Amino acid sequence: MRKRRETQVFSIAFLDLLSGALGAVIILYIAVPKSPIKVDAVQEEARARHLEEQDLKLQTAERQLKEVQEVNKKLREEIEKAEVVKAEEVVEPQAAPAENFDVGFKFKGNKIVFVIDTSYSMYQEDRIGQVKAGLKMLITSMPPSFDIEVVQFPNGERTPFKVLWGTLKPLSMINKYDVYDYVYGMRPLGGTPTRDVLLHVLNSYQDISDIVLLTDGAPSLHNSSRRDDIYDILRVVRENNPSHVQINTIGVGKEFIKDKTSDYYKFLQMLANENKGFFVGF
């Protein structure tokens, strides 16, 4: 009998303990907010701050855009004003007619024969290279309204001269390339038969306005080291130039510039002066 009472006392006390603990847990579960509710509140607050920051950035960008648009508007107005002033006050220069094209050289007209010395002495100081480069630059810059021909002298030992086309041709692009190829193939060889080439040009080309002679030496006889008579050449040129073709002369080489008393210097100077042309040495 004593053992049964002790068991009952223990059981009631244990149930009371369980019921008290369960009640405390239930009270805590109801009274204290759960952790998901706390997380949602934090996220909502962060989202609100983010939206506020984005709205502030948008407002700043809109304000900057308006400022840029105002600056562009003012720039357009200033440009339009400047263009109006230019149209009213600035006079565009008129292009010079083809007949007045001279690139430092005053030609008589626009029908020109270039006569190029390819004698053996043109090897010295690379005179032939200088002539080729200068002629190519000149031809490149000349308009198609010019008609030209190129003649080299001598043609080695075979003939006193060699022509490009045998007639004057307009300076179209394709004809310019023909000139470049012809000039590129020039090789110094032989003497300086100036008389032969001048007489050929004066008697073979109709209505030419100018001859441009580029040479580095005094005239000589073809296939000979014997010098030609410069004064007799001047006389023959006068007799064969009834249409008064302007003859322009360009002397090439350091020796030419250095000795102005030489026959070749005097010859080129007199040839140009007697035929109303320009005379240049380089």
Q: Averaging pLDDT over every residue, what do you get? A: 80
Q: What's the CATH first level of the domain at 101-281? A: Alpha Beta
Under CATH, the homologous superfamily of the domain at 101-281 reads von Willebrand factor, type A domain
**Run of helices and strands:** HHEHEEEHHEHEHHE
Shape: elongated
CATH topology of the domain at 101-281: Rossmann fold
- Sketch the major β-sheet: 7 strands, mixed
The CATH architecture category of the domain at 101-281 equals 3-Layer(aba) Sandwich
What is the total tally of β strands? 7
Helix count from the secondary structure assignment = 8
Rg, Cα atoms, Å: 50 Å
Tell me the strand percentage band: 5-15%
From the N-terminal CA to the C-terminal CA, the straight-line distance is 149 Å
pLDDT < 50 runs, ≥5 residues: 6-12, 14-19, 21-35, 85-99
**Percent in helix:** 40-55%
Structural class: alpha/beta
Would you kindly provide a written description of the structure presented here, covering whatever features stand out?
Helix content is about 55%, strand content about 10%. The chain has a domain at about 100-280: von Willebrand factor, type A domain (Rossmann fold). A hairpin with an 8-residue loop joins strand 2 (about 145-155) and strand 3. Helix 3 runs antiparallel to helix 4 (about 175-185) and helix 6 (about 230-240) runs parallel beside helix 8 (about 265-275). It has about 280 residues and is an alpha/beta fold. The longest helix has about 55 residues, at about 35-90. The model is unreliable at about 5-10, about 15-20, about 20-35 and about 85-100 (pLDDT under 50). The chain is elongated, with a radius of gyration of 50 Å. Strands 1, 2, 3, 4, 5, 6 and 7 form a 7-stranded mixed β-sheet that branches.
